[in-house]
Amino acid sequence: MGEYLCREHFIEYFERRVYETIRHFQLIEEGDRVAVAVSGGKDSLTTLYLLTKFSKELKSEVFGVAVDEGIAGYREYKLQALSKLANDLGVKIFIGRFKDYFDMTLDEAVERLRGKGMKIKPCSVCGVFRRFIMNKMARELGATKLATGHNLDDEVQVFVMNALKAHIEGVEREGINSRTTGEGLVPRIKPLYLITEKEVLTYTLLKGIHTPFVECPYIVYALRHPIRHWINHVEDETPSFKYKVLALKELTRKLLPKPLEGAQRCLVCGEPSSRPVCKACLFRAYLDKDFEHRLIQKISLYEASKRLKSDF
Ligand code: SF4
Fold first, then answer.
1. Minimal CA–CA distance to 104: which of 120, 122, 117, 82?
2. What mean pLDDT comes out for the span 54-80?
3. Quick one: how far is CA 266 from the chain centroid?
4. CA–CA dist 34, 29 (Å, integer)
5. Residue 38 belongs to what H/E stretch?
6. Which of 218, 224, 228 to mutate to test the pocket of ligand 1 (most atoms within 8 A of CB)?
7. d(Cα 104, Cα 97) in Å, to the nearest integer?
8. What is the side-by-side order of every strand in the sheet holding 93-97?
9. 194 CA → ligand 1 middle, Å
10. 275: part of which helix (H) or strand (E)?
11. Which end of the chain has fewer CB atoms within 10 angstroms, the N or the C?
């Protein structure tokens, strides 16, 4: 931004920027029922706060969906902060638990991952399970949009991680709104896409939006952890580095072909998936012997019925 602003003008600038982003990219339209994915962190609380504030003007409806992964000493504190803000705003929050959907908490899943040599990292399982629950809950609650609190820093970090892994599909997928709108997938929007993490932090401090400073114990396993430090270091040395990376990301996405519309349904759970069996079911089978057995049975039945059909 490159300007010094007083409290009042900073708040005005911040809110206007988010509002104009929503308008410019048509993230929310009249009549939308917006589910805000809230973790209880500063970004998602800010998103919930602002979308509620703008809902009258945007003629939309807002509610929150949260996921309790079952991370002891972390998630309960974040959910407390969320419940306080939701109460103040008078917004309804719906909570989905890993235990109910996958029959294991993340803490239990991590124990099993450890037993298997940690070849798969906790954040990979957590991210896939969380996206699964968020989309399913939002859809079942009648949401027409699913808003997340991803800010500019998150987007730059994910882009760099995807670039380092040569994961072009990931680059394509992570825009300000989702370009795939297959059956069963609630379109995702990111109202804080053009706002830096520092700006969000400043806004929450000025507005008194509180979240406890607790960190997930599994963050140390995430590739994002060192990448984040590296990007912040380069930004300190070269101001506006993050904006340039975001611009590069957008240019790259423009050159990539739009993905084919319409995800298929997972053979096992029936949820939208880009492959015959969704990643959530594959991870669950990896961590749970009984579920693995059920998954194999379903796939064998499917293969047998396919063979039968082709024989007649
Ligand atoms: Fe899940 Fe990783 Fe985030 Fe912890 S740091 S909540 S494990 S994605």
1. 122
2. 97
3. 20
4. 10
5. none
6. 218
7. 9
8. 93-97, 61-68, 33-37, 145-147, 188-189
9. 23
10. none
11. C
Pocket test for ligand 1, best of 216, 220, 224 (most atoms within 8 A of CB): 216
pLDDT for position 141: 98
- pLDDT per residue as tens digits for the range 11-58: 999 999 999 999 999 999 999 999 999 999 999 999 999 999 999 999
Inform me whether the pLDDT recorded for 181 exceeds 70: no
**CA pair distance 82, 47, nearest whole angstrom:** 12
CA distances from 30 to 26, 54, 175, 239, 290 (A): 10, 12, 22, 38, 46
d(CA 174, CA 158): 8
Nearest to 41 by CA among 85, 99, 82, 12: 82
Q: Which residues pair with 68 in a beta bridge?
A: 97
pTM for the structure as a whole? 0.92
Distance (Å, whole) CA 312 – CA 33: 46
Q: What is the mean pLDDT of residues 174-178?
A: 90
Q: Where are the alpha helices (DSSP H) in 94-196?
A: 98-102, 106-115, 122-140, 152-164, 168-173
CB-neighbour burial class of residue 118 (10 A; exposed 0-12, middle 13-18, buried 19+): exposed
- Rounded CA-CA distance 1/200 in Å is 13
Q: Is the pLDDT of residue 308 over 90?
A: no
